[in-house]
Amino acid sequence: MKNFVTTLGLLAVLGLGSNCEAKTNTHTFEVGNKTFLLDGKPFTVKAAEVHYTRIPREYWEHRIQMCKALGMNSICIYIFWNAHEPQEGVYDFTGNNDVAEFVRLAQKHGLYVIVRPGPYVCAEWEMGGLPWWLLKKEDIKLRDLDPYFMESVKRFEGKVAEQLVPLTVENGGPIIMVQVENEYGSYDENKPYVSEIRDCLRASGWDKTVMFQCDWSSNFTLNGLDDLQWTMNFGTGANVLKEFQKLKELRPESPLMCSEFWSGWFDGWGYAHETRPAKDMVDGLRTMLDNNISFSLYMTHGGTSFGQWAGANVPGFKPDCTSYDYDAPINEQGAATEKYYELRNMLQQYSDKKLPAVPKAKPIISVPEFTFTEMAPIFENLPASQKSEHIVSMEALNQGWGSMIYSCSLPKTNMPSVLHINELHDFATIFVDGEYIGKLYRGDKEEAIRIPATKEGAKLEIFVEAMGRINYSKLINDRKGITESVELITKANGHDLVYSLNNWDITLLPYGYENVKNVAYKTLDPTTLTVNPSPTRTPRKATVREKAGYYKASFKLSKVGDTFIDMSTWGKGFVWVNGHCLGRFWEIGPQQTLYCPGCWLKKGQNEIIVMDILGPEEAKTAGLATPIIDKLNKSGKSDAVKIDKKNKAKAADAVLGNDAAPGA
Question: How confident is the model at residue 662, as a pLDDT?
Answer without folding.
Answer: 38
